[in-house]
Amino acid sequence: MVLDARRALVWPARKTVILADPHIGKGDTFRRAGIPVPARAAAADFDRLSCLLSDYGAQRLVVLGDFLHARPDSADDCIERLHDWRRRFASLEVLIVRGNHDAHAGPPPSALGLVSVDEPYADGPFVYRHFPVGTGVDSQGGYVLAGHLHPGITVALGAGGARRVPCFHQSDHQMVLPAFGGFTGTGRVRAATNDGVFAVGRDRVIALPRPAMV
After folding, report:
1. What one-character-per-residue DSSP string does 174-207 give?
2. What predicted TM-score, i.e. pTM, was given to this entire model?
3. Topology classification of domain 2-212
């Protein structure tokens, strides 16, 4: 498995890219509410996704919930971008594990040919979920891959500065992926001593030393 700095987990043996919480259409939702949000973040997300799929020769995409941020309007920019992206990757198998935003947004347009399932969804050694599970909770027979929490961590920079960055949070029973969407924000990671935290840098993923995780 590969932790990619573009906020995705890659399963090369299965030609599968796994990501969480793209929140497609969030900018459109804000603009409909009268909040001025530039469209470049959405365009950047689609570009990043397209590069990921092409770089790894992916045949399958798994989305761990919150594919859409809200029920889209037919005039939303995200609808046109989605259809353009799907035409480019027409043969790609796309599996969406429904999250809390998906429940409100409703299913994606049927013309996109995407498959939506409820959690948990077993796939080989993994169990796909949107909501992470607690320690000791039955994971239905596999290592859990989940989203929802938008994990992030503050890392120290030079000259006493600091920056908040997305991260992958790994424990003995699950990994919580960072939010893929660039317009999502981050939540605080509450890592146990033996957990792994992998900060997302500009072009690489950095394993943080364990004392920095507590």
Report:
1. EEEPPB--SSS--EE----TT-EEEEE-SSSEEE
2. 0.87
3. Purple Acid Phosphatase; chain A, domain 2 (3.60.21)
